[in-house]
TrEMBL record:
Domain ABC transporter: 2-226
GO molecular function, one term: ATP binding
Principal subcellular localization: membrane
Compartments (UniProt record): Membrane
Name used for this protein in its record: ABC transporter domain-containing protein
UniProtKB keywords: ATP-binding, Membrane, Nucleotide-binding, Transmembrane, Transmembrane helix, Transport
Zinc-finger found in the keyword field: no
PANTHER family to which the protein is assigned, alphabetical: ATP-BINDING CASSETTE SUB-FAMILY C (PTHR24223), FI20146P1-RELATED (PTHR24223:SF448)
One term under GO cellular component: membrane
Length: 251
């Protein structure tokens, strides 16, 4: 809950994410999706535990916990000052590492063409970059930090299809060894996840591979998919089925 007198936003929330798993988090507005991420970062007082690698992170210093989790927020955050500081605020990495990250998110040419390269100025809020470019800078920042947990808070909701595709492919390829939690309103971004966490009123309603969940005739995910329309629903189910069959062959 956000204040001591407020009702609980998350209720008996309990789920397990295995190393390297890609988890989609879905649910209608107010289901508790973003609150789950707030709990992970301990932005508000918690009851209960959040265990990562066998360690109760609620017992650790906040800066230690937050430094180990990368996030690409819905509204990308850039700071005024040189691009270098946006990628590497504490000056911990070489230029080669920074350029490599920019190349991986298709921004190397854009930055190198600016007058001062990595030292080029970023306006307050990153307004001299498009929303999509700001998202890609956040993605490059996550690549540089190389954390084992990545959170995407509706990260593709405000970007063009090309940038959306770049982000999705980078997550699959560059973050293959990470646990990735993705909040998405657009179901196509998570139908190839290892599991989907379906939330409602701060509770877990369903949690399994999307294709398994779609077999539930009156399931919540089934209803969400059906609501997209017959053609889109068929495409979503096809993605889930192909992913499920591929994983079954690899097992």
């Amino acid at each position: 809950r956000y204040n001591p007198s407020d009702p609980y936003v998350l209720k008996n929330l309990n789920f397990v994410v295995q190393p390297k798993e890609k988890i989609g988090i879905v649910g209608r507005t107010g289901a508790g999706k973003s609150s789950t991420i707030s709990a992970l970062f301990q932005l508000y007082p918690l009851e209960g535990s959040i265990i990562i690698d066998g360690i109760d992170t609620t017992k650790l210093p906040l800066d230690q916990v937050r430094s180990k989790i990368s996030i690409i927020p819905q509204e990308p955050i850039l700071f005024s000052g040189p691009m270098r500081k946006n990628l590497d605020p504490f000056n911990e990495y070489s230029d080669d590492v920074l350029w490599n990250a920019l190349e991986q998110v298709d921004l190397k040419d854009t930055i190198s063409e600016m007058s001062a390269g990595l030292n080029s100025n970023v306006s307050e809020g990153g307004t001299n970059f498009s929303v999509g470019q700001r998202q890609l800078v956040c993605l490059a920042r996550a690549l540089i930090r190389n954390n084992k947990i990545l959170v995407l808070d509706e990260a593709t909701a405000n970007v063009d299809p090309h940038t959306d595709s770049l982000i999705q492919s980078a997550i699959r390829e560059k973050f293959a060894d990470c646990s990735v939690l993705t909040i998405a309103h657009r179901l196509h971004t998570v139908m190839d996840s290892d599991k989907i966490l379906v939330m409602s009123s701060g509770r877990v309603e369903e949690y399994d591979h999307p294709y398994v969940l779609l077999q539930k005739e009156n399931g919540v995910l089934r209803d969400l998919v059906n609501a997209t329309g017959q053609t889109t629903a068929k495409n979503l189910e096809k993605v889930a089925r192909e992913n499920f069959e591929s994983k079954s062959k690899d097992a």
